[in-house]
């Protein structure tokens, strides 16, 4: 579930963003209510509300008064753009550093990426 | 129900259980009262419930002084680990009768639901219950009292894991249906932490901190690296604990770091990591160099 | 009045039943005794004078040791509980005094039928009411003292004994065990007034001790 090492509201927001990115949550799809979310994950409703509010502020979700919260139409595209901005810094750079540290030649890494891309593995 | 504690002191003879404590709690939130055994949790809550008169200072609940004031106490329920609202020779059904007599906000139907949830029989004598069952019965009394300020002291004691989860679920559900102020005391925060909006940590009868649980989660930082570099970096910061392994040292720091400090850590090649809430709590209630 | 009415609803029928059961047992024992020897004293008088006082003492203890903390745990104040419990104690004292008197009536009918002699036949409703009231008030005072001061409350035992002395002189059969006989130099009326005084004093002491009593965690 959630770990106790970083704010839970941030973990919730990250999880919902990941669902939007992967397509598990589609545009204009309704998300769980704060109370449903709190009951399901056994967390304080105020914490869940804070996460949802952050996602509304970031325009990932939008509110329909009296009905609930929905994934905004542009959410996925927006998150993809943001993801691309941080991808190299957060994913590729540490991977390269790790490969060097344990002695894997970068050519091997590149070959692996090509195999994945061509669907050979 | 709002709670205002000002300069509260509770003494038993020569022993000071609560020492000049002040804090305020807002309405309709779930609070955790954390402290080790003997830190003064039960004494504090006993005064908040009017079970005992403060030796000094004031306690207001909903703006009213609590002790011997029905306007305050009618809205307060405290369940200590052994239920106060029953005698050991009473049957559960009798204890429920007393609650129905004397607690104006008592919800008998909800009490029945909880008994069913916890698989407690009305014919059972309180004295014959296991510790976990007695705790579950305490939770039943506490929740069904529907008091605007409900305090549960170590209410998970002796409950097995499935029962604890039932307790947490019931608590959350009822809190969302009937928002009110809850204070849950515990010295095991791991499981309970996600339920708590704010925590109040006390130690040796004094307030250590009162903070939103989620911000507390980002308050602890573990700094790891070469011993000298770590020492240099943490100088002037609040260090909760340190440990060394060979040339490597790791220090737990309490507080948040600004961008300049983060950059300095990166330059020195120090590794920064988060600290679990439970560890943070353990170290906050155990000053450096002191073993208890 | 919620506390007084709820206490009355449960404890009053229970105590009346206890009295009725005691009457049946006393009459049965009287018949058993009559097999060996002639009946010349009132069996009910012994029960009424000796045992009943201790039951009322227990009621006083029970009110404080059991119900006070439960009432506080359900958000009632000590003040509210104590005055209603006092009213309840006075109420049951009068009701049980009437039941006691009724017991004498039943017994006298049986004795007349069997041609036995009752000897000395107890006191009136007012006398029994005062006796019961002071014993329950002393019970409440001593229970509160022991809960609040633990073993230091041993000093309240002589106070309790002094408080029940005048009551012992009001009804016959109470003058043997466990304490003193009639008060020398007092008329019956003066003894009644004195007993009324002890009721007030015992209630006042119980109030003083329990008024701000902490509710402790019950052991185990």
UniProtKB/TrEMBL annotation, chain A:
- Annotated SMART domains: HTH_GNTR (SM00345)
Q: Molecular function terms in GO for this entry? A: DNA binding; DNA-binding transcription factor activity
Q: Which residues form a coiled coil?
A: none
Instruction: Tell me which residues make up the HTH gntR-type domain.
Output: 6-74
Which key words tag this protein in UniProt? DNA-binding, Transcription, Transcription regulation
UniProt entry tagged with the keyword DNA-binding: yes
Extract the Pfam families matched here: GntR (PF00392)
What this protein is called in its record is: GntR family transcriptional regulator
Source organism: Lentzea tibetensis
- In the record, what lineage is assigned to the organism producing the protein? Bacteria, Bacillati, Actinomycetota, Actinomycetes, Pseudonocardiales
From TrEMBL, chain B:
Alphabetical UniProt keywords: ATP-binding, Nucleotide-binding
Quote the SUPFAM superfamilies the UniProt record gives.
P-loop containing nucleoside triphosphate hydrolases
* A matching Pfam family: ABC_tran
Q: Where does the source fall among the domains of life?
A: Bacteria
Q: Annotated Gene Ontology MF terms?
A: ATP binding; ATP hydrolysis activity
Protein name according to UniProt: ABC transporter ATP-binding protein
Q: Which PANTHER family match?
A: ABC TRANSPORTER, ATP-BINDING PROTEIN, SKFA PEPTIDE EXPORT ATP-BINDING PROTEIN SKFE
Q: Which InterPro entries match?
A: AAA+_ATPase, ABC_transporter-like_ATP-bd, P-loop_NTPase
- Could you tell me which residue ranges the ABC transporter domain spans? 3-229
TrEMBL record, chain C:
Instruction: Tell me the organism.
Output: Lentzea tibetensis
Protein name per the record: Uncharacterized protein
> What stretches pass through the bilayer?
12-35, 55-73, 85-105, 125-144, 151-171, 191-210
Give the highest taxon in the source lineage: Bacteria
* Alphabetically ordered keywords of this record: Membrane, Transmembrane, Transmembrane helix
């Amino acid at each position: 579930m959630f770990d106790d090492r970083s704010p839970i509201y941030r973990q919730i927001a990250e999880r919902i963003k990941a669902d939007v990115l992967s397509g598990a949550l589609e545009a204009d799809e309704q998300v769980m209510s704060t109370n449903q979310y709190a009951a399901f994950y056994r967390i304080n409703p105020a914490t869940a509300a804070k996460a949802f509010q952050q996602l509304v502020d970031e325009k990932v979700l939008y509110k329909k008064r009296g009905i609930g919260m929905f994934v905004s139409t542009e959410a996925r595209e927006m998150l993809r753009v943001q993801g691309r901005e941080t991808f190299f810094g957060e994913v590729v750079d540490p991977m390269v550093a790790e490969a060097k540290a344990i002695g894997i030649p970068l050519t091997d890494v590149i070959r692996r990426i090509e195999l994945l891309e061509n669907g050979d593995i | 129900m709002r709670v205002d504690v000002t300069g509260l002191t509770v003494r038993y003879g020569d022993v000071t259980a609560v020492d000049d404590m002040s804090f305020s709690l807002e309405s309709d939130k779930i609070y955790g009262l954390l402290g080790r055994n003997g830190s003064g949790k039960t004494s504090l809550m006993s005064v908040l419930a009017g079970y005992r008169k403060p030796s000094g200072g004031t306690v207001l609940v909903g703006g009213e002084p609590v002790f011997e004031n029905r306007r305050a106490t009618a809205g307060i329920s405290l369940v200590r680990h052994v239920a106060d609202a029953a005698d050991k020779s009473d049957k559960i059904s009798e204890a429920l009768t007393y609650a129905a007599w004397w607690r104006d906000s008592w919800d008998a139907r909800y009490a029945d639901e909880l008994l069913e949830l916890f698989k407690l029989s009305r014919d059972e004598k309180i004295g014959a219950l296991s510790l976990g069952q007695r705790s579950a019965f305490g939770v039943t009394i506490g929740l069904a009292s529907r008091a605007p300020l409900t305090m549960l002291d170590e209410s998970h004691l002796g409950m097995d894991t499935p029962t604890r989860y039932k307790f947490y679920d019931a608590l959350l559900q009822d809190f969302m249906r009937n928002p009110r102020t809850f204070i849950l005391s515990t010295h095991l925060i791991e499981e309970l932490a996600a339920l708590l909006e704010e925590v109040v940590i006390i130690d040796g009868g004094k307030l250590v901190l009162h903070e939103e649980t989620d911000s507390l989660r980002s308050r602890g930082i573990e700094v790891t690296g070469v011993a000298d570099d770590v020492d240099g970096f943490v100088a002037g910061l609040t260090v909760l604990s340190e440990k060394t392994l060979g040339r490597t040292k790791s220090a737990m720091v309490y507080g948040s770091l600004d961008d300049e400090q983060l950059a300095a850590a990166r330059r020195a090649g120090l590794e920064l990591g988060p600290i679990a809430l439970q560890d943070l709590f353990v170290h906050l209630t155990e000053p450096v160099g002191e073993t208890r | 009045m919620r506390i007084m009415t709820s206490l009355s609803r449960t404890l009053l029928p229970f105590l009346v039943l206890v009295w009725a059961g005691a009457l049946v047992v006393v009459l049965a024992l009287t018949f058993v005794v009559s097999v060996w020897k002639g009946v010349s004293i009132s069996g009910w008088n012994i029960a009424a004078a000796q045992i009943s006082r201790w039951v009322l003492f227990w009621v006083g203890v029970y009110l404080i040791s059991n119900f006070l903390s439960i009432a506080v745990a359900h958000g009632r104040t000590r003040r509210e509980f104590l005055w209603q419990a006092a009213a309840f104690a006075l109420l049951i004292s009068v009701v049980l005094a009437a039941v006691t008197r009724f017991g004498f009536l039943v017994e006298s009918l049986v004795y007349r039928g069997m041609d036995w002699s009752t000897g000395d036949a107890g006191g009136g409703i007012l006398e029994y009411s005062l006796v019961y009231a002071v014993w329950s008030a002393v019970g409440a005072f001593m229970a509160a003292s022991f809960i609040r001061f633990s073993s230091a409350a041993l000093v309240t035992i002589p106070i309790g004994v002094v408080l029940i002395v005048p009551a012992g002189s009001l009804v016959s059969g109470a003058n043997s065990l466990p304490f003193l006989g009639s008060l020398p130099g007092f008329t019956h009326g003066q003894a009644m007034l004195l007993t009324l005084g002890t009721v007030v004093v015992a209630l006042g002491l119980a109030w003083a001790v329990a008024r701000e009593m902490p509710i402790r965690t019950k052991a185990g």
